[in-house]
From TrEMBL:
InterPro entries: Class_I_gatase-like, DJ-1/PfpI, INH-QAR. It comes from the Bacteria. Residues 1-155 form the DJ-1/PfpI domain. PANTHER family: ARAC-FAMILY TRANSCRIPTIONAL REGULATOR, DJ-1_PFPI DOMAIN-CONTAINING PROTEIN. It comes from Acidovorax benzenivorans. This is DJ-1/PfpI family protein.
Length: 209
């Protein structure tokens, strides 16, 4: 199972790295086939806060991913208006991949025509121009329709992670990961809140199937 976290220069550290850490819990538990990789158009990328990291793969590998998470950043609109960066993303396909986007990452999925006109989430800063692009933004932390999920707010990473793991590994695995990362003394509350967002979308997906 391969998950790519799409990360551009001036990326939001929390969006990409919280998800990266939480998703990698599955590999740390012993699943050797579970791979979480930072995908970027350049070998190294620097976050909006000055943290420089190495990418694991370039954008040519996105078609091979089982799931792609699109993080946000300060240059998202610049990315969206750069054909050399957007063209490689046109391989993304919700018919055979899970797609998740956080904050301004929702804008990229919208520009790629991958939201299908369904309600989506983004952060408050990005909301005005995401709305202007034609995306139906709803004031919620998480939304999922079919194989596409969106979230709004840096700490909404947990909802995208829970959704991805529940879809790819099952609810028990999602609960274990949420429990591990939850604050002491608040673990059940943390799990219940996250799955409260995710479970209804899974039930809708099961009914549709």
């Amino acid at each position: 199972m391969r998950i790519s976290i799409l990360t551009f220069d001036a990326f939001n550290d929390l969006d990409s790295l919280v998800a990266f850490g939480m998703l990698n819990r599955i590999a740390l538990l012993g699943d050797k086939n579970w791979q979480v990789r930072i995908a970027s158009p350049t070998p190294r990328i620097t976050s909006m806060n000055g943290l420089t990291i190495d990418a694991h793969e370039d954008l040519s590998q996105l078609a091979q991913a089982d799931a792609v998470l699109v993080g946000s950043g300060m240059k998202t609109r610049e990315v969206a208006n750069t054909p050399a960066l957007m063209d490689p993303l046109r391989v993304l396909n919700p018919a055979r991949q899970l797609l998740a986007a956080q904050c301004s990452g929702t804008y990229l999925l919208g520009r790629l025509g991958l939201l299908g006109g369904t309600p989506a989430c983004t952060d408050l800063t990005s909301r005005p121009w995401v709305v202007e692009s034609g995306v139906d933004v709803v004031p919620r932390a998480f939304a999922a329709h079919g194989n596409v999920a969106t979230a709004g707010g840096c700490l909404a990473s947990q909802y995208l992670v829970a959704w991805l793991i529940a879809r790819l590994k099952g609810l028990d695995a999602a609960r274990e990961v949420l429990h591990y990362f939850a604050p002491v003394g608040e673990k059940q509350e943390f799990i219940d809140r996250a799955l409260g967002h995710v479970l209804p979308t899974l039930e809708t997906q099961a009914a549709a199937a």
